[in-house]
Amino acid sequence: MTMCSLTIIFGLLAGLLIFAFRKPSKEEISKFKSKKQDQINWSNMGF
């Protein structure tokens, strides 16, 4: 492999890891804690 392709692959992996291990914002946490949102999700799935 060339140095350029190694750099691109390393950059993509680093970005993926940063995205996977970042802390969720309060807005994202509140989406999961909201019961109303849960009901909306289930009704959209047809249950």
Helix and strand topology:
Elements: H1 3-21, H2 26-33, H3 35-45
Q: For the report, how would you describe the main beta sheet?
A: none
> How big a fraction of the residues is strand?
under 5%
Mean pLDDT: 78
Order of helices and strands: HHH
- The value of Rg in angstroms is 19 Å
Residue share in helix: over 70%
| Mass-distribution shape | elongated
Taken together, the total number of domains comes to 1
Instruction: Say how many strands there are.
Output: 0
The rounded distance between the terminal residues' Cα atoms is 51 Å
Q: pLDDT below 50 for ≥5 consecutive residues: which ranges?
A: none
Global structural class: mainly alpha
Number of helices: 3
Tell me what you see in this structure.
By secondary structure, the chain is mostly helical. The protein has one domain (3-45). The chain is 81% helix and 0% strand. The radius of gyration is 19 Å and the shape is elongated. The protein starts with a helix and ends with a helix. The relative contact order is 0.08. The model has no long low-confidence stretch (mean pLDDT 78).
Q: Can I get a quick summary?
A:
With 47 residues, the protein is mainly alpha-helical.
Tags for this entry?
47 residues, mainly alpha, 3 helices, elongated, 0% strand
